[in-house]
Amino acid sequence: MNKYIAELIGTFFLVLTIGCTVIPGAPGVIPPLAIGAALMVMVFAGGHVSGAHFNPAVTLAVFLRGRCAAKDVVPYWIFQIIGAVLAALAAKFLVGLPAKEPAAITGEATGKVLLAEFLFTFALAYVVLNVATAKGTSGNSFYGLAIGLTVMTGAFAVGGIGSGVFNPAVAVGACVMSLISWANIWIYLVANLAGGAVAAVVFKVLNADDK
């Protein structure tokens, strides 16, 4: 149970940071920096307990890579989503809702969001697998920084295209906070889980001797 609670706590503070910086429209570089930093410190805090996934797509990638037991996958997802929803409710209480409803994603924009979310979820899962599960980087002290910076980079690079979610639990929390439309949540679920799965396949191909 401890590892499930650690997943809830880490996901909670990641989503809370998103809500408290994005909803009020914090200026300039503040949201990506804050979000990347929040993920970094939570990874360092919870890595020794649960592996610090805080993301169903990462859990899927780590499972497919062979470093997460099948019995833990669904509980990890459940506790990650619970943490995201609780954080969304806390953010709504602290800073309210966005000034306007999120626009629906339609037409050509759907493909752009799918690609943006897939690419940077792939990047995130690929980094996690290489810095937190690979034999060659075992025992390193930089894994949290690498993971947090990957999310920060993605938020800067494609946040304006697909909101920079890269995480199905964050997608649920963002819907609760009215940052993205419930009608479009499928885009994030499909792109994020596909990105995690492909990252696991690529990792296994490139590291065939790392069982």
Structure in words:
It contains eight helices and no strands. It is mainly alpha-helical and 211 residues long. The protein has a single domain, classed as Glycerol uptake facilitator protein. The model has no long low-confidence stretch (mean pLDDT 95).
Strand content is under 5%
CATH topology type: Glycerol uptake facilitator protein
* Secondary structure tally, helices: 8
Order of helices and strands: HHHHHHHH
User: How many beta-strand segments?
Assistant: 0
Helicity level: over 70%
Which stretches are poorly predicted, pLDDT < 50 over at least 5 residues?
none
Number of domains: 1
- Global outline: globular
Please identify which CATH superfamily we are dealing with: Glycerol uptake facilitator protein
Query: Under the CATH scheme, which class?
Result: Mainly Alpha
From the structure above, extract its key features.
211 residues, mainly alpha, Glycerol uptake facilitator protein, 73% helix
